Every structure is written in C-alpha cells, then in structure tokens.
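Table S2 (continued). Query chain:
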Amino acid sequence: MSSQLDKKSVYLEILNLSWPIILSQIGNIAFGFSNMVMVGRVSPTAMAAVSLANSIYILFLVIGMGTLAATAPMIASSKAARNNSECGEILRTGIELSFIISIIISIIMFVIGENIHLLNISSANTEVVELVRVYLRVVIVSTIPYMLFLAVKQFGDGLSITKPAMIVTFVGVIFNIVLNYILMYGKFSFPELGIKGLAISTLTTRTLMALAIIVYIFNHKSFREYLPPLISKFNTWPVLLKIVKVGFPGGLQLFFEVGAFTVAGFFALKLDGENYIAAHSIAHTLSAITYMLAMGISIAGSILVGQSFGDGNKAKIISTGKSVIVSGIIFMAFWAFVFFVFGENLTNIFIDPKHPNPELVELSKWVLIIVGIYQLFDGLQVIGLGILRGIEDVNKPTIITLIAYWLIALPFSYFLGIYMEYKLIGIWIGLMIGLIVSALLLNIRFFRLVLGNKMAEYKATDLKQLD
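Corresponding output:
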C-alpha cells in the first residue's frame, strides 16, 4: 500500500513541476508562431527573410540554451543536499555564463548575417539578403536578455518554483504581439517599420522579461535564503567549468537534432512538387510543438532526478526515472493518437480554405501517421536525455545523439527518401529509425548506470564511478 502511495506521490511531483514548464514551452511556441504570422502579413519576402535568419540563429541559440539548462538539475541537487549557498553560487555563475554565451553567439551571428550572401541560400534574392541583415542586426542584441532570462529561470526551476517564469513568458507573448502590431504596421502614430519593427519588438520584450524575472526572484521571500552568495566574493571559475562540462554537451545534443532536421528539410527540397515541401513543413512544425511540450516533462524529470541524486537516494532515482518515462510515453501516446485520427484536420489548419489542396491533405495524412509513431520514441529520447542530465551524465549521451541523427537517421532518410524514391515518407521513416536508436540507447544507459550499483542507498558521487 505504501509503495502505491509513493508512486502516486512521484507522479504528483512530476505533474506539479512539469505543467508550468509545459505552459512556458507553449508560451515560447506562441512567441515564435505569432511573430511568423504577423511578419507574413508584411510580405512574403519579409517572411522568407525571418524564416531564413531564424533557421540559422536557432542552430547556435540551442547550444546556449542547452548549456544553461544544466544549472537547473545542479541547483536541485544542491538544494536536496541542503547546500543553499551553492545554489546561489550556481545562479551567479549562470548569470555570468549567460553573458559570455550571448557575446559569442552574437559575434557569430553578426558575421554570418553580414555575409549571408555567401551562403547562396536565398537564390540571389538581394531583397531577402538585405532584410536578413536588418533583422539580425537588432535580434542578435536580444540574445543577451534572452540568455539572462534563461539563467534566472533555471534557478527557479531548480528550486521547483516554476510558475513565475510561466507567468512572465505568457505576459511577454501578449506584450510582444501588441508591440509587433504597433511597430510593424505603424499604428498609433508610430512609423511602419516592418521587419525591423519585429526585431525591435523582440529585443524590447526579451529585455523586459529578463528584468521582470530578476526583480521577482531578487525580491520574493522564497528565494532569499539562496541569494547571499550573489553579493559575496568567491571564485566562480570552478562552478563555471562544471556548468560548461555538464551543459555544453547538452547544447550539442540540441544542435545535432536541430541540424539534422535542417538537413532533412534540404532533402525534401530535392523532391519534385511544392506539396512535398509543404507537407514536410507541416509535419516538422507539428512534431516540433509536441517535442517542446515533451521537453517540459524532460526538464521536470531532470530536476527531480537531480534532487534524488543530491540526496544520494538510489531507490528514489530509479522510481523517479521510471515514473518520468511512463509519464512521457502516456503524454506522447496521446499526441500519436491525435496525429493518427485527426491528420487531415491538422493539415487543414495550414491551408487557406479559399484554396483547398486535396493532394497536400492526402500526402500529409500519411506522413503524419509516421510522425505519430515517431512521437513515442521522440518522447522517450528527450526524457532519456533529461534524466541522464539529472545524474550529470552528458558526454556519452551526446555521442549517442550524434551517431543516431547524423550517422543513422540522415543516411537512412536519404537512402529511403531520395535513392529508393519513397520520397517524403522515406525521409521521415529514416528520421524515425535514428530516433528509435537514440531513445533505446539513452534509456538503457540510464538504467545500466543506476542499477549497476547493488547497494540500495549510496553516495551521489558513487554513480559517476559506475560507468
């Protein structure tokens, strides 16, 4: 009876921690989606420029996001060990690291933006190239407040206080839409700035979001006992190295995945017919949304496993890991069902009702069946990465993702989709094969590590010696 109660309490912990994070992820999706919808009303050229700029920008942004994400389970582990001062040290170091990451990403993106014509992606469309430059010159500055927001958000997440970031995110989305409307379309006596207005709105919103969460955390009583190290003198270098050691491989994991889907998009461009490109875009958009939602459960899992890791409680690590995996499977099985049953309805969301396209609907319906199966393994792999991050195991999982996406998924996608001429279905089956390999290897690795030690209770540092 007590074991059943323990299981229920673990699932309640996962639910209570993950739902604000999931809603924050929905807010992030809404932020990008609303930007694309609103810039599409400026002109197709402006939309193409923003899409091109963001597709390159996100490749580098996810490295920073993944690196800073490591601080949440580290803080959770320190909190569980009742080392409050270390929580503050990780926050302060995370803030410093966010500035370093921002500067590096901004320099890289400035160089790429100013030389975007050399990539020869935009079919020599000089207007698109110039708009990319205009957009990036402003947006890259917003990297600083965005990374600062993430660093402080991870602190709250690590302490299991996730609602403030959720609220700030949703308020930010609403503010960004209003400011987009004013600056992009020239309302209320403001000049019509178009794509530059979008960039200014993004910069302004991200800055205000960073300020809002900083003011809240530095003034709310829930955080006070963790904050003294922020104003004291201490050497942040050892903590910074640890965050980079644990976090940077996580950033590379995201880079490998995002990069693989970018390449798969180029495979789709090789197929004759715009319906293939449109169907791939629809499938990619929908799978990216569900991935972001599953990421909420993964983050919650990494935090809860990190807490048990800090306690040195092997039984709790195992039970939490299993519960997070089951939660992820159930969650993604729901979305698989939605893709199976409502594939046509989902496709029609992206089609102008005034211009029906039955061929695109039929093609997307079959692709979404593959994507539906794909959901289960997508959830397993993102949760596997999360719970492994909770026990600070990141290097070999990074190698696994590299092999799964770049040495298995992409070759199979090209072979099945292009060489064997199964077209878009083949491309997505190839991606699914790589994802299955990644999901199985990551979860096998987690249980091999935590079950390798036969003792029921152990010191957290012992886990690192099991491999």
